[in-house]
Amino acid sequence: MTSARAEFDRRVEPGRALGADAEEIARACHAVAARFQAGGKLVVFGNGTGATDAEHIAVEFVHPVIVGKRALPALSLAEDPATLTGLAARVGFDEIFAHQVRQLAAADDIALGVSSDGACDSVARGLEAAHDLGCLTVALVGGDGGPIAKAPFVDHALVARSDDPCVVKEIHVTIYHVLWELVHVFFEQKAPLSPAGGSGGDGSRVAETECDDEVCITCSDQALPVRVIEMRPGDLALVDTGSGTEEVSVALVDARVGSTILVHAKEAIAVVGDDQ
Amino acid sequence: MTVEELYPFLYAEESNLDAVLAEVRRSTAEKAAEIVALRTEFVEQQGEALEAAAAAMAARFEAGGRLFTFGNGGSSTDATDIAAVFLNPPRGRPLPAMSLTTRIAVITALANDVGFDVVFARQIAAQSAPADMALGVSTSGGSENVLRAFEEARRRRLLTIGLAGYDGGRMAESGLIDHLFVIPSASVHRIQEAQTTAYHVLWSLVQSALTS
Questions:
Q1: Residue A181 touches partner B, C-beta closer than 8 Å
Q2: Segment A26-52, tens digit of pLDDT
């Protein structure tokens, strides 16, 4: 039987190679952050193990593991069996993502395709459809990057340096964890977020956020501790954000006037203190 | 840890893009080195235990056993990936495995009618036989629905395998898990990355045991 040690040893070189690709990763993250800042959403897709990555990436952005990070819009195109089997049967397997991209994505969005060998036709077609719409296109691939890494419709190709699909996936998990973290670093740093990369970017879009995300707790989960100043019918409460008031849901917590609560996407998720 | 603590340079003053890019390059390279070191630490501590778990799983598969996998959030995608790599492997012999996390009708029915804590345990009760295996993934080791599934699996004499992080949490304390692997890290992200390697290697060792 193969030893566990030998299996782990095989991972060391591809793992180290990721560090050498930090420049490409940083530039891709900056471009992704710019798209989010401009109001774009992330659509993610992949086959097989890549489908599980797509789901993982979507939950990473929508519900971050680190409390206090804002929720960002992300959608996996690989987790609805009715749509996937329906499209595969009616249009053909290669169109399962491209069709969804054309219906569910918009010009401001980011398309992220995951393909272990860079040769999945359905992922390539999805990225091409996204590029045609004006989306920023990012590919997570492995091996030599395959046709996808070289395709003219891919703005950023991030390559895990291994031919083993299992090792490629492991490197991809680190890449997308870093992607999520760096997007938030760029936000918090307020580094220049001009829409970079993506042929569809016209370079002049401005952020369309309706509120300053340092303050508005309804469009993010900055987890500012806010204080309940009035209980309202329907499990709602008026809270003091420190710079104004907002109405939030307290259906999930045992809050009362004077409670300090943490709010995620307009929903109180925890009581962190009580004045009374 | 706050972002300020992780990236002190970034908060010293308003930086230009080049400086920020230089800093994120540095932090990315550091994370790459961190996960390489964590994998090595893990295999040194628990490599032999991983081989023992693979041998036990191979024996169950030979006896007609099936593998059930479960977890929440990112770990639910790991559960799905584990089932997929056993069922539809990139090489070697396909083996019967299914993820309990993708059964949306069953999960929403159970969560709505009974509660979220039973969404995996009830499926184990309905689907499993004593020859089967239950593999649960949790970064904290403390997910109630994962622990309930292990309880049910133990009651039904399934082989139980767990992947956890930190110090193993309640999964380590429960005594319900025959083969428990704890990734020695406090970072959810690094734990998940090392867990991905751990289950891939487990799969590879099972394949190897079945052909030897």
A1: yes
A2: 999 999 999 999 999 999 999 999 999
| A1 — pLDDT class (breaks 50, 70, 90) | low
Asked if the C-beta of B54 comes within 8 angstroms of chain A's C-beta atoms, the answer is: yes
Domain architecture of chain A: domains with CATH: 4-189 (3.40.50.10490), 226-274 (2.30.30.140)
* Cβ <8 Å between A5 and B15: no
Distance (Å, rounded) from C-alpha A123 to C-alpha A139?
9
- ipTM of the prediction greater than 0.90, yes or no: no
The contacts found for B90-96 with CB under 8 angstroms, 24 or more apart, are: B90/A164, B90/A165, B90/A166, B91/B207, B92/B207, B92/B210, B92/B211, B93/B207, B93/B210, B93/B211, B95/B61, B95/B67, B95/B206, B96/B61, B96/B65, B96/B66, B96/B67
- Residue A258 — φ and ψ, nearest 5°? 100, -15
pTM (2 decimals)?
A: 0.80
Question: CB of A165 within 8 Å of any CB in chain B?
Answer: yes
* Residue A215 clears pLDDT 60, i.e. is over it: no
Contact residues, A window 37-56, toward B, CB-based 8 Å cutoff = 48-49, 51-53, 55-56
Determine the Cα–Cα distance for residues A120 and A114; give it in Å rounded to an integer: 9
**Across chain A, what does the average pLDDT equal?**
86
Nearest CA in chain B to A9: B40
Q: Give the one of A4, A18, A178 whose C-beta lies nearest to B51's C-beta.
A: A4
Confidence of residue A264 (pLDDT cuts 50, 70, 90): low
B171 touches chain A (CB under 8 A): no
Question: What confidence tens digit (pLDDT) does each residue in A129-173 have?
Answer: 999 999 999 999 999 999 999 999 999 999 999 999 999 999 999
Q: Does A246 touch chain B (CB under 8 A)?
A: no
What superfamily in CATH does domain B15-211 come from? Glucose-6-phosphate isomerase like protein; domain 1 (3.40.50.10490)
